[in-house]
Amino acid sequence: MPERQLDRAAVVAATQEAAALAFASWRAGAAADTKVWEKSKNNPVSDIDMAVDAFLTTRLRAILPEAAWLSEETVDDPSRLDARLLWLVDPIDGTRDYVRGRSGWCVSVALVADGLPIFAVMAAPAQDKIWVAAHKEGVTCNGERLMGSTRLDFSGSRVPADDLPKLDADLVTVTKPNSIAMRMTMVACDRADLVATLRWGHEWDIAAAHLVAQEAGGVVTDALGQPIRYNKRKPLDFGLICCAPGIHDAAVERLSGRAAQLLA
């Protein structure tokens, strides 16, 4: 199996070093010490995003040269579609929090095999946390094994959100980091029960957190409740549901009408 051939310690070390590189320019409560521009409206990127991407490209490809590469800050190489193994990386997920001096950002690294994440490392140095997950082997945060939310009642579910629509008034808001991956770890750490979106999102945003949440007992699907596969020609999925298994069906039902309108 490819995951048995992987030098996992080297992947963890590379992710930690990449996180330290980003952390060196982060300023708590203030603008980061880096040049920032917008790739598109409300989609900031910084010199540090690019530096972390370059660092991880070199280190991870040296660890497993046969794996193809897909990341937020690298031009997509379509030859990846012929590869069984793929590094799927977001150098800084939550750039908005990063550049504003907030702690809700992370470095996100996943190794995908045959369309599924099999090993993942997420490092959030501003929160002094690192998650390591392996397929069918569980997940740890700072070395402690995780067991995620086991909620059974949809009403009252904790959702990382600034506010909620009136249709969802029966849910409970909790603190929301900018990073979607960091929100998903909240389900894995039993600090939230549900993360849901109804927008098209990129594979690199969620691949590592998908495995983290899954190995903690969570369910991760698109907004329609369908499984998510990685290394697609267009690396996009419509929406996300990451939640406790006992509320997944209810979450799909709750979102179904809105999803249908958006896709019409």
Kindly describe this structure.
With 264 residues, the protein is an alpha+beta fold. It has 2 domains: 2-145, Fructose-1,6-Bisphosphatase, Chain A, domain 1, CATH 3.30.540.10; 158-263, D-Maltodextrin-Binding Protein, domain 2 (3-Layer(aba) Sandwich). The N and C termini lie far apart (42 Å). β5 and β6 (116-124) form a beta hairpin. The protein contains 7 helices and 14 strands. The protein has helices at 2-5, 8-23, 47-63, 95-99, 180-188, 203-215, 248-263, and strands at residues 36-40, 43-46, 68-71, 85-93, 106-113, 116-124, 129-134, 138-141, 144-145, 158-160, 172-174, 194-202, 219-221, 236-243. It is globular, with a radius of gyration of 17 Å. The strands form 4 sheets. It has a 7-stranded mixed β-sheet. It has a 3-stranded antiparallel β-sheet with strand order 12-14-13. Strands 1-2 form a two-stranded antiparallel ribbon. The mean pLDDT is 96. α2 packs antiparallel against α3 and α5 runs parallel beside α6.
